[in-house]
Description:
Chain A is mostly helical.
Amino acid sequence: xxxxxxxxxxxxxxxxxxxxxxxxxxxxxxxxxxxxxxxxxxxxxxxxxxxxxxxxxxxxxxxxxxxxxxxxxxxxxxxxxxxxxxxxxxxxxxxxxxxxxxxxxxxxxxxxxxxxxxxxxxxxxxxxxxxxxxxxxxxxxxxxxxxxxxxxxxxxxxxxxxxxxxxxxxxxxxxxxxxxxxxxxxxxxxxxxxxxxxxxxxxxxxxxxxxxxxxxxxxxxxxxxxxxxxxxxxxxxxxxxxxxxxxxxxxxxxxxxxxxxxxxxxxxxxxxxxxxxxxxxxxxxxxxxxxxxxxxxxxxxxxxxxxxxxxxxxxxxxxxxxxxxxxxxxxxxxxxxxxxxxxxxxxxxxxxxxxxxxxxxxxxxxxxxxxxxxxxxxxxxxxxxxxxxxxxxxxxxxxxxxxxxxxxxxxxxxxxxxxxxxxxxxxxxxxxxxxxxxxxxxxxxxxxxxxxxxxxxxxxxxxxxxx
Amino acid sequence: xxxxxxxxxxxxxxxxxxxxxxxxxxxxxxxxxxxxxxxxxxxxxxxxxxxxxxxxxxxxxxxxxxxxxxxxxxxxxxxxxxxxxxxxxxxxxxxxxxxxxxxxxxxxxxxxxxxxxxxxxxxxxxxxxxxxxxx
Lengths: 467, 135
């Protein structure tokens, strides 16, 4: 057992943003499972299932949900293990295949801008829309007003940090599981019974491959940043078990439940359907907690990256980031006719690179490090005094090419294309460069007891201690 | 090594939860023939509470240290708390009240009790041992 006195790191940024997680803060398998499921248990997953319900019959819905989930399980399982064994955040892990500066920039693209501000604002606005649909005549349910109080609510647990996210997940995940089951039962009841549900045909049928694409696309970005949760695990295999269990069991359960309700009721707005069917407060709980558990994670992951350039405490940054996202959502909510489409398109463009970044990470950890002969349990272990490149140009090229080619030029599942291309391009280029003696990294950064914290943060922390 | 003070109380709460869950499962019988789709909520809440209470009690009994006992108590109490909270939101809803009548009211009361048991089960071991409530 590790002695806590052996922990040599100083966590100047809070929440172990740039240093390994302290042994005393490691959590159980149950904790990992609930936090992962809390991220999944969102309205987007149910709306995704609802969209599938307009495109597939029950058999197709089941096959697409299980096949898509299996792909996400493999990808997320691979990245979760990296978090479980290294105990460090996605940003720190990315600094190996992209360099320290590269890790920061790609981390900012994947989490800081995309999740922390972008998707936080979009999901907060969606929350406002949903609450308005549930109570169209109430002043507190106006899209702008609901976005305001919803955004502030979601900020609270993100400001607390990992413990806040875990607290909310413990409270709401079993609730959400029950609500998804209730949706399924109500859908079957309204559809005229289970036997009739199986004979219903969808209004807009699509090929099975397109439906699998939808399922994979729903959660692949989440699958690439599992290390942010997995690093808190007690054993390296725990986040892998937790991830695979929740993706293979809970994700199909949500998708099929929402799909059946949609198939039966003919609309994709699942909370409205639940309220109309008589779920009462359950419909409101689904809307509020569904968005809350996911969006606080967006904010949390985003703030982890912003701490590296903004000279403020992580909690303050989380609050600022949350206020910006909430303000965007409320502005759109108050401005009748305003659309979030250009904003969402921009986020989707960034989103095409996220799986490629994940692919490069997987390739470097599992293929390049194995080629270099580093034992699995020793890979990416942060050590004081070791030198990490400032920029790993091979990682940059692989992610850019993988994102562009996979996202725009190859048909099929764009996210999966980008990820696989990221793996292939990085593996080939890095091994080739190594064989012909071209260095992968430019510049060097020495790891101190402050981990990968920039020098100005270290100096500020030392000044603070001296006072 | 002495048993931690919370242990006995948490056992009692798990036993009470189990008894209420068994009654909840029995109460499914009159609802099921009327409307199985509404009746599914009764076992959906009661069966997991029954399982988590029984398994929680066994795991606590087998645990060797107060910290280990507190960990199991907190983890299983969270499930009781969240499932009770789910029942509290859903049993009074029109869909289930119409199908269940007085039976749904009884289950709402049980849900309030489960929620309280869960809160106590999470808080007491935490207060006594210092184990995180989100262990």
